[in-house]
Amino acid sequence: MVDVMVAGVNAKAVRIAPCLAGTDPAPSLDQLAEAKLILLGAVKRWTEAGSGSFVQQTAGPYSVTTDNRQRSGYNLWPSEIEALQELCRTGGAAAAFTVDTAPSAGSFHSPICSANFGAAYCSCGADLTGSGPLYEVTG
Protein backbone atom coordinates (compact mmCIF):
# COMPACT_ATOMS: atom_id res chain seq x y z
CA MET A 1 0.00 0.00 0.00
CA VAL A 2 2.88 2.35 0.75
CA ASP A 3 4.20 1.83 -2.80
CA VAL A 4 0.85 2.97 -4.17
CA MET A 5 0.91 6.04 -1.89
CA VAL A 6 4.46 6.95 -2.95
CA ALA A 7 3.61 6.60 -6.65
CA GLY A 8 0.47 8.67 -6.17
CA VAL A 9 2.16 11.44 -4.21
CA ASN A 10 4.94 11.62 -6.82
CA ALA A 11 2.33 11.97 -9.57
CA LYS A 12 0.56 14.71 -7.62
CA ALA A 13 3.83 16.52 -7.01
CA VAL A 14 4.75 16.52 -10.70
CA ARG A 15 1.29 17.82 -11.61
CA ILE A 16 1.50 20.59 -9.01
CA ALA A 17 5.19 21.45 -9.53
CA PRO A 18 6.17 20.33 -13.06
CA CYS A 19 9.77 21.47 -12.63
CA LEU A 20 10.41 18.46 -10.39
CA ALA A 21 10.11 16.10 -13.36
CA GLY A 22 11.72 18.39 -15.90
CA THR A 23 15.01 17.76 -17.61
CA ASP A 24 15.52 21.21 -19.12
CA PRO A 25 16.63 22.49 -16.69
CA ALA A 26 16.83 19.47 -14.42
CA PRO A 27 15.85 20.07 -10.80
CA SER A 28 18.79 20.50 -8.45
CA LEU A 29 19.62 17.92 -5.81
CA ASP A 30 18.57 20.43 -3.14
CA GLN A 31 15.18 20.90 -4.80
CA LEU A 32 14.62 17.15 -5.00
CA ALA A 33 15.69 16.62 -1.38
CA GLU A 34 13.29 19.29 -0.15
CA ALA A 35 10.46 17.91 -2.31
CA LYS A 36 11.08 14.42 -0.91
CA LEU A 37 10.83 15.77 2.62
CA ILE A 38 7.54 17.53 1.89
CA LEU A 39 6.12 14.40 0.23
CA LEU A 40 7.36 12.13 3.01
CA GLY A 41 5.30 14.18 5.47
CA ALA A 42 2.21 13.74 3.30
CA VAL A 43 2.67 9.97 2.97
CA LYS A 44 3.30 9.65 6.72
CA ARG A 45 0.08 11.57 7.40
CA TRP A 46 -1.81 9.33 4.98
CA THR A 47 -0.56 6.14 6.66
CA GLU A 48 -1.67 7.46 10.06
CA ALA A 49 -5.12 8.47 8.80
CA GLY A 50 -7.88 7.04 10.94
CA SER A 51 -5.72 6.47 14.00
CA GLY A 52 -6.96 8.05 17.19
CA SER A 53 -10.32 7.75 18.87
CA PHE A 54 -13.43 9.47 20.09
CA VAL A 55 -12.96 11.07 23.50
CA GLN A 56 -15.93 11.76 25.71
CA GLN A 57 -15.58 13.97 28.76
CA THR A 58 -18.37 14.31 31.25
CA ALA A 59 -18.77 16.89 33.99
CA GLY A 60 -22.10 16.69 35.78
CA PRO A 61 -24.96 16.93 33.29
CA TYR A 62 -22.63 18.11 30.50
CA SER A 63 -20.58 15.98 28.19
CA VAL A 64 -18.33 16.77 25.28
CA THR A 65 -17.35 14.28 22.60
CA THR A 66 -14.19 15.00 20.65
CA ASP A 67 -13.06 13.20 17.51
CA ASN A 68 -9.26 13.30 17.49
CA ARG A 69 -8.77 10.86 14.62
CA GLN A 70 -6.63 11.91 11.70
CA ARG A 71 -8.65 12.93 8.68
CA SER A 72 -8.46 10.52 5.80
CA GLY A 73 -8.08 11.43 2.16
CA TYR A 74 -5.08 11.31 -0.06
CA ASN A 75 -4.63 14.97 -0.81
CA LEU A 76 -1.81 17.40 -0.21
CA TRP A 77 -2.41 20.23 2.20
CA PRO A 78 -2.39 23.79 0.80
CA SER A 79 0.87 24.47 2.65
CA GLU A 80 2.49 21.44 0.97
CA ILE A 81 1.25 22.55 -2.44
CA GLU A 82 2.63 26.06 -1.88
CA ALA A 83 5.98 24.66 -0.73
CA LEU A 84 6.29 22.46 -3.84
CA GLN A 85 5.36 25.33 -6.14
CA GLU A 86 7.86 27.59 -4.37
CA LEU A 87 10.59 25.10 -5.25
CA CYS A 88 9.82 25.67 -8.92
CA ARG A 89 9.76 29.45 -8.52
CA THR A 90 13.17 29.59 -6.87
CA GLY A 91 14.81 27.48 -9.54
CA GLY A 92 18.09 25.68 -9.07
CA ALA A 93 21.06 27.67 -7.89
CA ALA A 94 20.06 31.03 -6.50
CA ALA A 95 22.22 34.11 -6.75
CA ALA A 96 21.89 37.11 -4.47
CA PHE A 97 23.42 39.53 -6.96
CA THR A 98 25.86 39.74 -9.83
CA VAL A 99 28.99 41.82 -10.14
CA ASP A 100 30.32 43.23 -13.39
CA THR A 101 33.99 42.27 -13.21
CA ALA A 102 34.80 44.00 -16.48
CA PRO A 103 33.23 47.48 -16.36
CA SER A 104 33.18 49.60 -19.48
CA ALA A 105 36.54 51.06 -20.55
CA GLY A 106 35.32 54.63 -19.96
CA SER A 107 34.78 54.09 -16.23
CA PHE A 108 37.03 56.18 -14.00
CA HIS A 109 35.63 54.87 -10.72
CA SER A 110 37.70 52.72 -8.38
CA PRO A 111 37.06 48.97 -8.82
CA ILE A 112 35.59 48.92 -5.30
CA CYS A 113 33.32 51.91 -5.91
CA SER A 114 29.62 51.36 -5.32
CA ALA A 115 28.88 52.66 -8.83
CA ASN A 116 30.64 49.59 -10.28
CA PHE A 117 28.31 47.34 -8.29
CA GLY A 118 25.17 48.90 -9.77
CA ALA A 119 24.52 51.57 -7.14
CA ALA A 120 23.11 54.94 -8.12
CA TYR A 121 25.85 56.73 -6.15
CA CYS A 122 29.63 56.92 -6.13
CA SER A 123 31.49 55.91 -2.97
CA CYS A 124 35.03 56.58 -4.23
CA GLY A 125 34.69 60.29 -4.92
CA ALA A 126 35.32 60.07 -8.68
CA ASP A 127 32.11 61.97 -9.27
CA LEU A 128 33.75 64.91 -7.44
CA THR A 129 37.13 64.84 -9.20
CA GLY A 130 35.85 63.88 -12.63
CA SER A 131 39.04 61.95 -13.39
CA GLY A 132 39.45 59.19 -10.83
CA PRO A 133 38.98 58.25 -7.20
CA LEU A 134 39.30 61.00 -4.64
CA TYR A 135 41.27 58.73 -2.32
CA GLU A 136 42.39 55.16 -2.77
CA VAL A 137 44.98 52.99 -1.07
CA THR A 138 46.45 50.28 -3.26
CA GLY A 139 48.55 47.53 -1.84
Number of strands: 2
Largest sheet: 2 strands, antiparallel
Order of helices and strands: HHEEHH
Proportion of residues in extended strands: 5-15%
State the low-pLDDT regions, or none: 93-97
Quote the distance from N terminus to C terminus. 68 Å
Count of helical segments?
4
**Helix/strand/pairing category:** mainly alpha
Q: Total domains, how many? A: 2
Shape: elongated
> What's the Cα radius of gyration?
28 Å
Estimate the helix proportion, in percent: 25-40%
Strand order of the largest sheet: 1-2
- pLDDT averaged residue by residue: 76
Can you describe what's shown?
This protein is mainly α and 139 residues long. It has four helices and two strands, in the order ααββαα. It folds into two domains: 2-90, no CATH class; 95-139, no CATH class. Strands 1-2 form a two-stranded antiparallel sheet. The chain starts with a helix and ends in a 10-residue tail after the last helix.
